[in-house]
Specification:
Shape: globular
Number of strands: 29
Helix content: under 10%
Strand order of the largest sheet: 10-9-12-16-14-15
Bound molecules: CU-O-CU linkage, copper (II) ion
Mean pLDDT: 91
Largest sheet: 6 strands, mixed
Number of helices: 5
Radius of gyration: 22 Å
Length: 484
């Protein structure tokens, strides 16, 4: 489809050169000055096009029921990619093309969505909208060249509140062309499980309770599928720790107090400069890359706790610093040359206000709505909730009229949080998922870079299944003037 063709003309916005785009002025006359300014600031933030270097990395990924060892000496019946939970960590280098030969051996249809990766629309894994769902016994080839180096993940986009909960998720790491010389590169996939009295995954999904609350919160929290994960380092090591929250509903706030933990990337995208990681929460879907130097020697294990609800901390994992010291590598933390400040972006008239709420009705008794509509049936039949043009700046507002949490996720584009409850926030990095608290409103700024029909939904998967999904269509070519 057309989204496969890179839009060269967008380079006038993002790249330095105007070459080849002489037919479009660099600021359209109808553009409000604040929007033109925001667009200028965005220039050079990230590449529009992938730059394939000709290397293709091929992986075989099969989704199937499996049994895994679980804490307490139990065996847990799961659904897994390649028999493991978390699924395989796929690693490619920026410029390489990822090819995944996917086979579905589940008892139901499925797809793979590449969360946070700016893929061609046809590779986005949204059933009926970007591809037909993969039937039991069926196969599908996912192939794309990532445009950004960073920490991403993949999971099904069919009945995701069940399929992700049963164990279907894995990490996709896109390495920089020259990887920084960390002594270790470690992934922590944080998940929570709701187990029943037999120690198995409670097979009731999308319950009234889950829907009336913040989705399904479990009774066991694991890091990399374990309750006793330990990161062992020697004094002096400098580690890149990649965190992913793959929970259906749980928000985590990992506390690295006492360690020199710097946030270097959010949702796979580097910050302009590192900042202390304290207070950086991970809603379902969020990733955070930390740069941790273990300069002091510490005696005994350091417990890392989730303190999202400070009264009820949860143990996540331990860090042990022991053994012969090593020399700490010195290199500048990886960073993004340019992140727009967007200080006056709140002056840009908002393009749309999304209203988030719930009502009774629908197949589960409660529906979660965006603009009073619950997403149902096939994405292909769903009227887009919003249409935007590629390469323009937009301010979008979300008003949470409910009392529950909604981590809103946009496919196919990154955005920057501008304000909470109308007050500007200084969050100098991009995201693909942002947590909106009960009764809160937020503003985001976004420049869509890829044409296509992109999902937007709450990443509390029970809320999404019960309707809180819509599509944002991003059109090619000359954008229509603002409707204000
Ligand atoms: Cu991880 Cu549609 O999302
Ligand atoms: Cu996604
Ligand atoms: Cu929600």
């Amino acid at each position: 489809m057309s989204a496969l063709h890179p839009d060269r003309c967008l380079s006038f916005v993002i790249g330095a050169a105007l070459a080849g785009c002489g037919d479009r002025p660099s600021s359209a006359p109808q553009e409000p000055p604040a929007a033109a300014q925001a667009l200028r600031e965005f220039e050079g933030s990230y590449p529009v096009d992938a730059k394939p270097n000709g290397v293709v990395r091929t992986f075989d990924v099969t989704a199937a029921p499996a049994e895994i060892p679980f804490p307490g000496g139990r065996t847990l019946q799961v659904w897994a990619y390649n028999g493991q939970v978390p699924g395989p960590a796929l690693r490619v280098r920026l410029g390489e093309t990822l090819r995944v030969n996917f086979t579905n051996r589940l008892p139901q249809e499925t797809t793979i969505h590449w969360h946070g990766v700016r893929v061609p629309n046809a590779m986005d894994g949204v059933p009926h909208a970007t591809q037909p769902p993969v039937q039991p016994g069926g196969t599908f080839v996912y192939e794309f060249t990532p445009k950004d180096a960073g920490t991403f993940w993949f999971h099904p986009h069919v009945r995701s509140s069940e399929q992700v909960e049963r164990g279907l998720y894995g990490v996709l790491i896109v390495e920089d062309p020259d990887s920084p010389a960390y002594t270790k590169d470690v992934v922590w996939v944080i998940d929570d499980w709701l187990l029943d009295e037999n120690g198995q995954i409670r097979p009731q999904f999308n319950t009234r309770h889950d829907l009336a609350h913040d989705g399904r919160w479990g009774n066991v929290i694991t890091v990399n599928g374990r309750t006793d994960e330990v990161l062992r380092v020697r004094p002096g090591e400098r580690v890149r720790l990649r965190l992913l929250n793959s929970s259906n509903g749980r928000v985590v706030l990992p506390d690295f107090a006492g360690l020199d933990a710097q946030l270097v990337a959010s949702d796979g995208m580097y910050l302009h400069e590192p900042r202390n990681a304290a207070g950086h929460e991970l809603a379902p879907g969020n990733r955070a890359d930390l740069d941790i130097s273990f300069t002091q020697s510490v005696s005994g294990p350091i417990g890392i706790f989730d303190r999202f609800y400070p009264q009820r901390p949860n143990h996540l994992a331990d860090v042990v610093v022991e053994g012969e010291p090593v020399e700490t590598p010195t290199f500048p933390s990886p960073a993004r040359a340019h992140v727009p400040v967007w200080a006056s972006a709140l002056d840009v008239p908002e393009e749309h206000t999304f209203k988030l709420n719930a009502r009774s009705g629908g197949p589960f008794g409660i529906e979660w709505t965006i603009d009073d509509r619950a997403f149902e049936g096939h994405a292909a039949e769903h009227r887009a909730g919003l249409t935007l043009a590629q390469g323009r700046f937009y301010r979008l507002r979300f008003v949470n009229e409910s009392a529950r949490l909604h981590p809103i996720h946009l496919h196919g584009m990154f955005f920057r949080l501008l304000a909470r409850n109308g007050t500007r926030v200084d969050e100098p990095f991009f995201r693909d998922t942002v947590l909106i608290r009960g009764r809160e409103s937020i503003d985001i700024g976004v420049v869509p870079s890829d044409a296509g029909s992109w999902m937007m939904h709450c990443h509390i998967l029970e809320h999404a299944e019960a309707g809180m999904m819509t599509m944002i269509d991003v059109t090619h070519g000359a954008p229509a003037p603002h409707g204000h």
